[in-house]
Write a structure and sequence with these properties.
Strand content: 15-25%
Number of helices: 4
Oligomer: single chain
Structural class: alpha+beta
Number of strands: 12
Shape: elongated
Distance between the termini: 33 Å
Strand order of the largest sheet: 4-3-2-1-7-6-5
């Protein structure tokens, strides 16, 4: 099968890879979305675990409601005084942002933990609690497992570490408990709604299929075939250069015996006969220099100098000059612009958070939310597509 068959197979492989990557990304996004919607429902309607079902070790106080409890939790004590965020639900995120280093802290105990609408409780060999009224610092580590808390009645910063699956529920319920203790549950609900809305913009989009016409010239050839072709090309080049190196040039010096006689012609205006042949000898042969040529009269009318050649530049149809040929004329949509594109276009603040293709808003700024509902909503609406050159 020829080139069309190779290109077709290349396109099929590329489309399969893109579809697999999209399916993986969408499954992860969907899991986060489902978890966020469950949290939103809990923030609206969850009123805590009934007192009759609360473990005895919690020892609920008057007006206190149990929100969450789990075993297999480690008690941490920090070996330094890290900077923590202000307590509250503003720093709570529905989504785990990825791995990261664990805090510099020491595990001092293992036991069970509980979260109520008044405090966080740990019970192991030691009993520890962090009351929201005394809480002045709260940070969740990027490792998705540890949380550190600072309270006014304790010198050292301490906290809890647990399995990443438990940690998501712990963080949510701590944020809910802080909001509940401040009588600000509606504010927490609104915070989660905003996070959930932002999450919709990060939804992966199905990839654009590639066609056989987009296949590179050598698509479909295996590594062995390409290596063999490279070897043949090198041999061919060596052969060409070898033949060129073995060919005598016009400047090859001949022996004195085989050198042709040098013939001179009279430059006298009165005679056109040839001078006698000079026999070869050891003495140098002197050839008289030719007289300077007569000057040529200039033309009556001097010729006009040629017009300078102007470098033609492709029209960008009003787009700012840029080395990538991005324009408003036409072409293909840009789903992955270069990293420095905002050096040439005026980008909106959350440009790189957009999930779509590059567009220009009516206020002149550009966004990456082309094709999405609500794009450029804060910039006067959509104006036109920014095309790749």
């Amino acid at each position: 099968m020829g080139a069309p068959g190779r290109r077709q197979r290349w396109a099929e492989r590329q489309n399969e890879r893109r579809r697999t990557a999209y399916d993986t990304a969408f499954a992860a996004w969907r899991r986060d979305d489902d978890a966020a919607r469950r949290m939103l429902a809990s923030a609206v309607g969850f009123r805590g675990i009934p007192a009759r079902d609360a473990p005895a070790y919690v020892q609920l106080r008057t007006g206190e409601t149990l929100l969450w409890t789990a075993a297999g939790v480690s008690l941490l004590e920090s070996t330094r005084q890290p900077g923590l965020q202000a307590p509250g639900y503003a720093g709570f995120s529905l989504y785990h942002t990825g791995g990261g280093p664990a805090p510099v802290a020491t595990v001092v105990d293992t036991g069970v933990a509980a979260v109520t609408n008044r405090r966080v409780i740990f019970l192991g060999r030691h009993r520890r609690e962090w009351t929201y009224a005394k809480l002045v610092g709260l940070s969740h580590a990027a490792d998705g497992r540890a949380s550190l808390m600072r309270v006014t009645n304790r010198v050292r910063v301490s906290g809890l570490s647990m399995d990443a699956g438990l940690a998501r529920g712990f963080r949510f319920n701590v944020a809910l408990g802080i909001a509940e203790s401040a009588n600000d549950r509606p504010g927490f609900v609104a915070h989660i709604q905003r996070l959930l809305g932002n999450h919709q913009w990060s939804r992966p989009q199905p990839p654009e299929p590639v066609t056989p016409q987009q296949a590179p010239l050598l698509a479909g050839f295996g590594p062995a075939t390409l290596a063999a072709a490279a070897v043949i090309a090198v041999i061919a080049l060596c052969t060409v250069f070898g033949l060129a190196a073995g060919r005598p040039t016009d400047h090859t010096r001949l022996s004195a015996d085989s050198a042709p006689a040098i013939v001179t012609h009279s430059l006298s205006a009165s005679s056109s006969t040839a001078a006698p042949v000079v026999p070869p000898s050891s003495a140098p042969v002197v050839v008289p220099a030719a007289p300077p040529a007569a000057p040529v009269a200039p033309p009556a009318v001097p010729a006009a100098p040629p017009a300078p050649t102007q470098k033609r530049t492709a029209s960008l149809c009003g787009a700012p000059p840029n080395p990538y040929g991005y324009n408003f004329c036409g072409g293909s949509r840009s789903y992955s612009p270069p990293a420095d594109i905002c050096s040439y276009f005026e980008c909106i603040n959350n440009f790189w958070n957009g999930v779509g293709y590059m567009i220009q808003c009516k206020d002149g700024m550009v966004s990456m939310s082309g094709g999405r509902s609500g794009s450029c909503s804060y910039h006067g609406g959509n104006l036109r597509t920014v095309y790749k050159g």
